[in-house]
Amino acid sequence: MALPPIVQAGDPVLRAAAAAVPPDYLGGREFRALVQAMVAVMRAAPGVGLAAPQIGVGLQVIVLEDTEALMAKLSPSERAARGRAPFPLRIIVNPTLTRREGGRATFFEGCLSVRGYMALVERDLEVEVTGLDERGAPVTWQARGWPARILQHEVDHLRGTLYVDRMLSRTFSCNEEVSGRWFDRPIDEVRAALEADRER
Ligand code: ZN
Prior knowledge:
Elements: H1 29-44, E1 49-51, E2 61-66, H2 76-82, E3 87-99, E4 104-110, E5 117-124, E6 126-132, E7 138-144, H3 146-158, E8 173-174, H4 175-182, H5 187-194
Antiparallel strand pairs: 1-2, 2-3, 3-6, 4-5, 5-8, 6-7
The chain binds zinc ion.
């Protein structure tokens, strides 16, 4: 199966609200092919999440998965700080996100549709998502830490929002600068260096 390309920022499909998946479409052959393509694209990238608009399909479908291999470069303390731990594949259709009272967290975040860059983004630490699974059964997931960040990022895609709309804009950085310079530094230090001398 040839994988569809990942749509890049500038394509209006990333800026449009995705449509709810109709009940009679769920579980059909076309829908199953869409989900299969999304999972394959996410894993090939590799990434921890993908929304249907990122392969040019304006429907409310997200897929998420995190694995040991994807976090291999993180130390135990970096994993703990991010609340990052492997979780199995999740497919969520027509998701609704609710904030929970868990505070906020700021970390570098990137997007497969904004290739080559990362920035600090403040997100809710805890969210609850409700929606349907790939068979149309209701699902609820209370997520905390990195899975909660991925959920917020992917549900944003379904509303036409990219992380660059929420980032601390002065921290927008090339991937090479983040990995070479900032990745293991405290967030306060990154902010002090990149947000210094900001014009008021
Ligand atoms: Zn993204």
